[in-house]
Amino acid sequence: MALGRRRLLIVFAGTGGLALAGCGQQEPAPRPATLRFDPPPGTRDVDARTPGRVTVTDGTLRSVEWIDETGRQLPGASAPDHRTWTSAEPLGYGHIYTAKAVAHGETGDVTATTTCSTVQPQQLIDVSLRSANLVELTENDTYGVGFVLVAHFDEPVDRAAAEPHLKVTTEPAVTGAWYWLDDQNAHWRPEQYHAPGTRITIAAEFFGVALGEGRYGLRDQRVSVIIGPSHVAIADDNTKQIEVFDNGTLVRTMPTSMGRGGTAVVGGRFMSFWTRPGIYTVLDRKDPVIMDSATYGLPTNSGLGYRTSINHAVRISHDGIFVHELAASMWAQGSTNVSHGCLNLSPNDAAWFYDFVIPGDVVEVRNTGGDPLDIWQNGDWGMPWSDWLRGGTHT
Length: 395
Fold this sequence. Notes:
By secondary structure, this protein is mainly beta. The protein has 3 domains: about 35-115, Immunoglobulin-like (Sandwich); about 125-230, Immunoglobulin-like (Sandwich); about 230-385, L,D-transpeptidase catalytic domain-like. Helices cover about 10% and strands about 40% of the residues. Strands 21-20-19-31-24 form a 5-stranded mixed beta sheet, with no helix packed on it. It has a 4-stranded antiparallel beta sheet with strand order 1-2-5-4, with no helix packed on it. Strands 9-11-14-13 form a 4-stranded antiparallel beta sheet, with no helix packed on it. The longest helix is centred in the N-terminal third of the chain and has 20 residues, at about 1-20.
């Protein structure tokens, strides 16, 4: 009995061994290369920022042609492993592309083609990056601690669509916010004056961005500016003096004569002769400048108007307020207000102040009559921070 059992096991083992020896491993069938296009074939209204891309599976790329409606070849390059090709530039606006790719796999060459079209804007919108003086920023410009960044769009835009693409960074970091005056103009500032030495960089990334009603952004921009020393001038109507501070140190005190006050209606237009209280910033300087009251609605033949050449004029508002030389009012400077709204100085003080300031420097006017300075006049810094925050699209 025991011997018979051992013989049976040997037979089974031998049979199993013979069966295994007789089974060969099958070779897998060759696989063809597979091509994929991005954007996918037939896609319309492709985002202008999108690159063209070809990917091959189970093979390598031999060639790629990505051609627009004019016959222009879209530049691009294959990855080192020749499994992907990516265009060197985005697809752009208003193009119809035909692409052809050839890949080599185990079954030989495979060819595939595709077509796609990109979004066609009804209008392209550009944005101008400026300071409060409405002059476009250039790289490494220097501004005072009251610098306000202005983004001006060619046409009205969807604020909520535009604001995320206006990216401001500062070194050192500080929190700032945008305030929209209207659908074409947004201003940016922090809660307090900038620290001297701060670098402010604005990236306006609008190429390919939908801005409402068929409008799209024209281009991307990037520029940075530097904040210079802290120059703050405080004009106090209680003392009729302007105290000028350089990085917190009082460096000059200048007698002044400001707006004489009162109002009038001239030619149906309401006119105020106050130097409005508020925080102004230096916009620009001219020496000399022709001051013509008619440009602000006060005709020269009205009995109150003027047209005259003024030396060492520092403009601080968009409606014609200057800190400037006027020797004729020196008898009143420091004691009486006699101007139409400007801040008069002696020739020596005006020349010094003209040479001292740069755009963005601060001029605070205190204790005068009349309505507070409005934002459209260059009164950004006078708005309480809580009100400023309500002017953005994040609220």
